[in-house]
């Protein structure tokens, strides 16, 4: 018998025995396993925060025992795990829980599994209770910085050349290297449409520098270095001061996050920082929920008609909510990245909007009213309730130059 088959038989026979024991214990107290994916920010940053918010919402029963365990061998941020462990009991990855969980899923025993809600699901609940007036999520963050961590953060800033009163922008471009290193290349087979070239950020970096901001290009693993050399620009992925604590501190305390809507944006959003997205995948524009600074979406181009799709076209063709690039490829649609010129224009608009509320002339007001009308209409239809959630706030120059989007 091949070793692989023998291994599977041993795993599931052991798992079946353990599940039988679990079923017996559950006669007296119900046990549920909570799997926590910790290999990337997209899942890990919100995991325990959302779990504890679900307790507040009374969706977790007090008479049940919940076992939280790390289900991935790789940890994207050990400092974040340490913070979580100070708040709640979390078990590290181990073969015992792994075998039980795989067997429970194989047997479809859902009553023994609790699935942590996504930030979208938690946000939708809190949004109806009390929408956040500021930036970021409506639901509360359980994470904060101790006095010692704040002092460590100030020391870190000085090592980077910043003083306590200096402001910094965290920029980020998603590329395929991180997911390939962490999850293998299969993820990029269907998420490649979310990537873009870091060099298209050059104009915006210069804008931030000219306005006395430091710029941290974030990401733990990136395939290409920045070409701009300036004392106020830190290409963090290639920096010796890079650490799990620095990841957490810089993203949570930045004055502005300016970049892709990947897991890197989760901490600024959780800590309610100014958020400006670029190259946001178009078919998700109404799923943002959080208040943002002016942002940009990718354009969707039809190879057959040689035309760009409007938001109405996307909904009529049932493209909203799709996150698999292979589907777009098979249907003949291309995601067109934002240009450096568009991104640079946006950076100027964002900085202005932080200082003073944007001014709109009559034509711009009319365009934005139509945009929000469309976004709210499809938001309600997609979410199947009577609540319109915040769509992405588009950049003024971008919308006025691409009015076909709301045609």
What does this structure look like?
The chain is of the alpha/beta class and 407 residues long. Helices cover 43% and strands 11% of the residues. The strands form 3 sheets. A 5-stranded parallel beta sheet has the order 6-5-4-7-8, with helices on one face. Helix 11 links the parallel strand 7 and strand 8.
What attributes characterize this protein structure?
three-stranded parallel β-sheet; 16 helices; globular; single chain; alpha/beta; 407 residues; five-stranded parallel β-sheet
What is the 3D form? Answer: globular
Element order: H for helix, E for strand: HEHEHHEHHEHHHEEHEHEEEHHEHHH
- Beta fraction of the residues? 5-15%
Helix percent band: 40-55%
Give the SSE map.
Elements: H1 3-25, E1 30-36, H2 41-56, E2 64-70, H3 78-87, H4 95-106, E3 113-114, H5 119-129, H6 147-159, E4 168-172, H7 177-183, H8 188-191, H9 202-210, E5 214-217, E6 233-235, H10 244-253, E7 256-259, H11 266-270, E8 274-277, E9 299-302, E10 307-308, H12 311-316, H13 325-331, E11 333-336, H14 340-355, H15 362-383, H16 396-401
Parallel strand pairs: 1-2, 1-3, 4-5, 4-7, 5-6, 7-8
Antiparallel strand pairs: 9-10, 9-11
Helix pairs in contact: 1-4, 9-14
């Amino acid at each position: 018998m091949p070793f692989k088959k023998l291994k599977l038989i041993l795993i599931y026979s052991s798992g079946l025995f353990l599940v039988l024991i679990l079923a017996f214990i559950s006669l007296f107290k119900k046990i549920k396993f909570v799997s926590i994916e910790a290999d990337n920010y997209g899942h890990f940053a919100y995991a325990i925060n959302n779990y504890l918010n679900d307790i507040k919402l009374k969706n977790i029963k007090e008479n049940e025992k919940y076992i939280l365990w790390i289900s991935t061998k790789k940890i994207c941020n050990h400092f974040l795990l340490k913070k979580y462990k100070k708040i709640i009991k979390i078990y590290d990855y181990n073969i015992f829980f792994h075998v039980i969980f795989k067997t429970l899923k194989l047997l479809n025993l859902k009553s023994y599994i609790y699935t942590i809600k996504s930030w979208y699901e938690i946000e939708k609940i809190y949004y109806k209770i009390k929408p956040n007036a500021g930036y970021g999520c409506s639901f509360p963050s359980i994470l904060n910085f101790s006095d010692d961590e704040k002092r460590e953060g100030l020391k870190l800033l000085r090592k980077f050349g910043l003083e306590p009163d200096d402001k910094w922008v965290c920029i980020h471009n998603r590329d395929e290297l991180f997911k390939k290193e962490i999850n293998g290349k299969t993820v990029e087979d269907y998420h490649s449409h979310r990537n873009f070239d870091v060099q298209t950020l050059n104009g915006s970096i210069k804008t931030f520098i000219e306005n006395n901001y430091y710029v941290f290009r974030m990401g733990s693993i990136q395939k290409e270095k920045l070409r701009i050399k300036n004392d106020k620009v830190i290409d963090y992925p290639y920096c010796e001061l890079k650490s799990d604590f620095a990841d957490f501190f810089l993203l949570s305390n930045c004055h502005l996050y300016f970049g892709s809507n990947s897991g890197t944006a989760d901490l600024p959003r959780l800590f309610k920082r100014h958020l400006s997205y670029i190259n946001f995948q178009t078919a998700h524009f109404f799923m943002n929920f959080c208040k943002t600074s002016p942002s940009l979406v990718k354009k969707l181009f039809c190879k057959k008609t040689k035309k760009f799709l409007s938001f109405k076209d996307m909904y009529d063709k049932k493209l909203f909510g799709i996150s698999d690039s292979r589907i777009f490829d098979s249907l003949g649609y291309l995601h067109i990245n934002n240009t450096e010129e568009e991104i640079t224009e946006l950076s100027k608009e964002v900085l202005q909007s932080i200082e003073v509320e944007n001014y709109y002339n009559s034509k711009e007001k009319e365009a934005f009213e139509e945009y929000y009308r469309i976004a709210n209409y499809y938001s309600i239809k997609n979410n199947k309730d009577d609540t319109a959630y915040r769509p992405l706030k588009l950049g003024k120059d971008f919308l006025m130059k691409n009015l076909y989007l709301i045609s």
